[in-house]
User: What shape does this take?
Amino acid sequence: MLGIHWKPVLMGALVVLSAAFLGTTLVSGADTPSPDQAPGRTMAQQATKSKALWITTDHTKIEKLQKTFSSGDEVTAACLSCHSEAAGQFHETIHWSWMASAADAPKRYGKAGDSINNFCISTNNGTDKGCFSCHPGWEGQSGAINCLVCHGQTEINWGESFEDYQAFAESDDPEELEIAAELQSSIQTAVQSVGRPTRQNCGSCHFYGGGGDGVKHGDLDSSITKPSKSLDVHMGTDGQNFTCTRCHTTVLHNVAGRIYTQPAALERKSLIEDDLTSKITCESCHSATPHKKGSKANDHTDKVACQTCHIPTMARALPTKMSWDWSKAGKLKDGKKYKEKGELGTVDYMTIKGQMRWEKNVKPEYAWWNGSIKSTTVKDVVDPTQVVAVSAPRGDAGDGMSRIYPFKVHRGRQPYDKVHKTLLAPLLSGKEGFWNHLDWDRALRKGQAALDVPYSGEFDFVDTTYVFPTTHMVAPKENVVSCGECHTGEGSRLAAISGLYMPGRDGAGVVDAFGWIMVLGALLGVCLHGLGRIFTNGNGKKET
Amino acid sequence: MASKLKNIYLYTRYERFWHWLQMALILILLITGFEVHDQITLLGYETAVAVHNFVGLTWLIAFAFFVFWVFTTGEWKQYVPTTKKMFEVIRYYSYGIFRGESHPVPKRKEAKHNPLQRLTYLSLAALLLPMQMITGFLYWGYNSWAAWGLSDLSLQLIAIVHMAGAFAILTFLIVHVYMTTTGHSLFAHIKAMITGWEAVDEQEPVEEWEKARERQAPVT
Assistant: This one.
């Protein structure tokens, strides 16, 4: 009777097959065959299909640009003689005003306002002229717009070029006049090479924020000028080769993006829902469920931002500054100011700036984020007994709109007023600035006065944090953060995220402990019972 | 005490198939489940989740076949709990077995389970496994809770109950596997579950109350 029964084997196979079939159907939930690639990719590819942008004007043929230019203002006038509305539009934007939304009143958020950070701290109401190297005007906020900061396709030092040209052009020496003609020729070439902003244009300021390459942003530095696809899937020159404005959709010179307290996008919409929507979010092109049908990743998009998984690390090509201790500034070597380089080839100590730490391949820190940032101004009272969040993400697990998002957190140590309990804004550059005389009290007095805020004369240093949402340097899909990097009890990337139960990260408390006691108890019990049977030679098999 | 053994056909084909399919599914679910709960590391989290989900859903379907079988064949009567002879069985496993005594409730076709087994298997099939299935299905369908009108449910609660169930099943498994060695030879019970034929003591006929197969002809 112990021969092979074929019937049960067949029946078993049938059940397993049907179960497997039904299981598959349930898991995928799909009645359509799954496509070869994720639908979100297909969508985005379709949205960017016509890559060749076309232009109807060749600026080298424009007569008005053939004239002699002896100053920046003349260049601007030439631009505006055709683009009559450009200046009016641009003056309204944050790129010109350096002020955030008027909706934030009476707070004056913005570089040109009361906002502070933990890098160079403040522009002191525009008193610190060093800051204006990044302002898109010929000289500060008072002069005309330099359209070519964003639209110029030839690199040129405008200041030097005009200065030299003016000097040589007035000479009687034919040799010097020849030099002047050459300078004018290169100025004209630069004026005539006009185009839509490239990564180089935007990067000339945004890659160097905070006073150097990669200082502020971990996901924006000069490596993005010509990135590989592995550094950034969108901007990679061997891939899509996106310019910044491909996503930072621009309307009337208003470039889409986050502005201090204002989120980059108020709604999560895709181009399918609204074909004229801004392309500033991932979802605009990729939709809210971009992964293959049935993929667990699609179930995550309500709570986890795309960036959280798709940007495993930032500063992958060049280091980014992670901390800046102003309290260490002012040390002299042989009575002189000095600099010290660190392992990564970065300046780790500067007499005028203090101690700095740089890192490469930085894992972001994560937080619930609703898209807006809580910002601190020179007028806000802070608690110096704790680490002061100069800026921090807003949002929490329960507000229905926040998602878990990656941030670069820059840690600083900067001056504060011991009496007024406010962060202080020293004047840094120029003759009266700290970088010149290394006298904190003097620099603070000047800086605070420029902002028209009080300074008691008593200062100390306080630890601070400043956050940058990480959104560039999106890695190829092969390099995404794996499930287990977050869903684990030890060393989870999301260890600090509260307000939700995360399988794998969160234990079951006493149930786990009690469970294992029960399991081990059972094991011990059966072992003892078994030993008992061996020693008593029992087991009911007394043979006769 | 000496007794004569006789072979009886105890477990039908489907029953054996279900038993071993169940074993395979439970083992896979336990291993992957403990990995998802970060108690062990084996397949990697993503694979563990995928396998656990697939096998879990497969289990739901397989269990439906079992329910169909247990009711259509009348085998459900084997699971009706009783306290009769319960004490004897407990006494046997905690004392008699060491003395070489015979089992007080030997297996019969009409009564496969002793009172302790009846209670255990009923608890499993009617309480523990359904609890695992319900919590498991809810866990799997977490993203649809709002659509199902279950927004107020706590994932943590579901996870903890599911986890408690897993520990209970693992504990059962340990004792159950050990108990297979308590037959008249170490592997007798396992062999029976493979072939269907079990060697049992000839003596002690099954008592009336134990019988599962009995069918009363309707009185006309």
User: Anything to note?
Assistant: Residues 23-34, 539-544 of chain A have pLDDT under 50 and may be disordered. Chain A touches chain B through 61 residues (CB under 8 Å).
